[in-house]
Amino acid sequence: MKGVARCFNNTLILDSEINYNLYKLITESLEEMYGKNPDPLIEKRVQDEWTCLQNSDAVFTICLLLEIVNNLVLFNIPYSIRHSGNASFILYLLGITNINPLPPHFHCLECHSVSWDHLSKCGLDLDKEKHCHIDNALMYPQGFNIPWEPHLL
Fold first, then answer.
1. SS3 of residue 130 by DSSP
2. Cross-strand pairs, 115
3. Which of these, 27, 37, 110, 111, could form a disulfide with 137 (CB 3.0-4.6 Å)?
4. Where are the extended beta strands (E) located within the chain?
C-alpha cells in the first residue's frame, strides 16, 4: 500500500487530501487558461498526465515542487526547470514551468477558443497575426509539441 499520510509544513496530511487539493488547483488553472470547456485534446492530456502522476506516486513530489517554486517567486529568485519537467502540461498549468508542451496552436485569451496547427513543429513557427473566428480578438501562438509519455511513464 502506498503512503497514507505525509508531513507537510508540520501538518499531517492524508494522500487523498493532497490529491484532491492538487487536482483542484490544476482544474482551476485549466479553466482560467482555456475556459470552462477546454478542447478535448487538452482535457485528454491533463487526464492522462494526472493518471500517470497518481500511479507513479509523484503527486506529493509535485506539491513540494509547487511550494518551492512559489517561495522562489515570492522572493524574486530566478529559477529554471530542466529536462522532463518541461514536458508536463500539468506543471505548465501550475506555473512551475513557462513552457507550454502542447502541440502548436493559437489560443484566444478572450473566448478561450483553440485553433491547432498540424503543419508547424512549434508555436514559434506560427504566424503572429491570427484573429479569432469567434470574437475577432488577436490569438496567441503557443505550444512546443513536447511529448510527455517518455518522461512520465
1. strand
2. 106
3. 110
4. 5-8, 11-14, 105-108, 114-116, 130-131, 138-142
